[in-house]
Amino acid sequence: MSSRFSLAMALCRIRQVPKFHQRAVANVFFRDFSAKSSVGRSLDHQNYSKQDVDYCVNLVRDRDREGFYCGLLMPRKVQKAFFILRAFNAELASIKGEHHARSKGATATGTMDLPKQYALQMRLQWWNNAISHIYGEEIERISDPSFANLSISCWESPIVRALSAANQEMKFTRRFLERLIESRQNDVEIMQFSTLEETKNYAEQSVSSLLYLTLECLGVREDAADEAASYAGVGIGLTTALRGTSFRLVHGEVTVPSNLLGKTFPYNQLIGSVVGDSKLSDEDAKEWKNAVTAMALSASSYLAEARDKQGQIPKSARTVLLPVVPASLYLSRLEKYNYDVLEPALHEPQRVQMMMMMARTWLTGIL
Question: For the segment 33-55, what is each residue's pLDDT rounded down to a tens digit?
Fold first, then answer.
C-alpha cells in the first residue's frame, strides 16, 4: 500500500469517515488517475469516442484540477459528460489568457489593440459555429473569408466531437452552451468591470451556466435547483476572480471593479507592487484592501445562500455543488490573511484539506 494511500486512510479515520467508505474515498483522491482511468473504461454510450473523452479528461486534469477532482466524485453514468463540459469551458476560458490580452505593465484604463481583439473574436466565433454544427444547423455564409473558413475544421476538434456525443445523450439546453461563449465574447475588451453588479453578471453567465448544464447531466431540470446553482455560480465566479488577481495584474487586468476604488486610485502602482517595481502608499493599500474585502464578502454571501438553498436540489444531484468547496476554502484563507489578496501563501496548495471537505460533501450530500 502506497504512503499516499495510507495517509488518505488515516485522514479518513481522523475525519470520522464511516469505515465502509474509507477505502473508496482514499482511492478517489490518491490513485494515479490517467487517461486510461475508470472514466474511460465506463464509456458504454455508442456515440462516444474513447480517445475524444480521454482528451477531455486529460485537459481538465491539466487546466482545471479542482474540476477534475469534482468529476471523479460525480456518478459514474455522468462522468464523461461532466468532463466534456469542463473541457469545453476550460478551452473557452483559456482563449483570452493565451493571447496575453494585455502587455505587462499596462494600466487598467488602457485598451487592447485591434489585432488581438480580432484574433480573440475569431476563435470565439469558431466555437459559435461549432455549436451550430452540433445542433445540425448550416452556417450562413460570412462575407469575411477569415471567418467563413472557421467552421471547416470544427469536427477535427476532439472537444467538439465529444460535446456533440454528450449532447445527443444529455440533450443540453443550447442557450446555456451559448452563454458560456457569449460571456467570453463580452469579456474580450474588458480591462476591469465598472461595478460589482457587472462582475456578478459575468459570473452568472459563465460559472452558473456551467452548473446548470451539470444539473442537466444529473437529470435535474427544475427552476428551484437552478436558483441554488445560480447563487453558487456567482459566488464561485467572484472567488475565482479574486484568486486570479496576481496573475491578471501582471498582464494589466484588474479583477476588482472600479466602483469599489476611488477615481484616482493608482493602478500603475498596484501593478508595480506585483512585479516589484513600486509599492502602494498606506492610504492606497487600505483602499485596495477594503475593495477586496467587499468583493470577498459578497462572494461569501452568495455561497452561503447556495448552502441555504441546497435542499432545492435532489440529494442525488448535489455533487453539482462540489465546486463550492474549494471556493469556500479560499475565502476562509483570504480572511485568515486579513484580505491581502496578493499574499503568496494564498497560492500554496491545500490539497488534503480540500479533498477531505469534498469527500464529506460527497458522502453526506451536504455542504
Answer: 443 445 655 555 557 999 999 99
